[in-house]
Target: Major facilitator superfamily mfs_1
Amino acid sequence: MGLVATVLNVEESDLAGLPLSVLAAMATIGSYYYLQPLGDVLALSMGIEWTPLVTVGNMVLIVALNPLYAAAVLNLSTEAILPFMYRIVSALLLLFACFFYFFSGVKTLSFCFSVYVGTISLFTTTTFYARLASLHTKAEAKRVYGIIAAGAQIGQLLASVTAPIFFSQMGNMIVCVSALTYELAVQPTPEPAENGKRDGKRNGKHCEVTPSPEPATSAIAENTCASRCGTSAVGGFAILASTPFLRAITLHTLLITFLVSGVWYERAAAVAAAFRTSDERYEFFAHLNFVVGVCTLLVQLLCFSHILRWLGFHGTLVAEPLAMGLGLCISIVSPGLLSIAFLDGLRKVVHYSLAKPTKEGLYASLPKDVVFIAKPLLDTLVYRTGSLVGAAYFTAAIQWGLTAKVRQYMLLAVSIGWAANCWWLGILAERHQQAQEELARLSSVQGGQDSAQPLL
Model:
């Protein structure tokens, strides 16, 4: 075990429940990547000019679901939230399978499914990482989140390799495979040892993501969402606006989703022009996902923890806007499907291998109302707000007759502002980690009494 810990750059205590978290990550992301190419294909089948409506549909559905999600969080224990959420998602996927069987080829159904996939991908991912955040400190997150993210990439790779096979045999019924895989992510785990995993955060050990006992939390981390939030999004927005750190991370989410949306539409336009059939487009998306997954997995396993230790939160977060800027410059100089695929692929590699596990680590050991109320609101409603602005930008750009090169110059300008935001957000996160470590030191000096964790 010592050799494994050395190779992965983690502590031996981190290895206790790490395999279970990795398996849960594999199933969660793998499930989505069975759906994502199908969602893109069905969205494009309506015509490129109608694809922005999918983003609008996402926004409407997210607004409707957020109060329901918040109500569920208030009435469920922390360890029950993830299984409850995933099983609802699976049940609705099976319902879509029935609709595909009886109403194949109906454009309204294609639209509804594309909206559903784009929405549930946000809720399942934010629920997964919220559960992780309830188990770890920022120091632990720096060590283990890269390994867990690598498990997610393995899930993406397996899905990317097998999805074309399943799709060729099952067609739209591939949604059943996804529903089964989501169920695998929430299977009950063995009861953890009394003195080890039961109190993962306090003992510095890693706990399972799926059903496990409630970890010990600080005074401020107790469930305060009932008094501060209720079931409305207003309380969540109040939390997001309450500190410089949360305001910075909200701006970060808006900027990244606007830019990702812009790149998505550029890619969609290039793919629609290059390929005529749904099978060709599906194969292209699946192959691109596979290449991205291989590169991402290598970086996550071999480089993430080292890079985060060397560069800190601020340096690692800035890597994604730099990659975005490089890809946009190449696309501007040499336009075409290959350069757009490089832009999209490079950004995804840096995002999933470095930026995303780093950003998710920012939430570690924050209060429950932040990770289970404000964070889902940020990852869904705020996220889709940025996407909606991106969709509006693309629609307006097409109507105004702006060329792809002009649109990409605009994205490049926004990416510069995003880089500045990433730097500031990382600095705030480093300050929070230092405050956590100081509180832990003081608590140890005072006899191990619990102390409240400060919000930035």
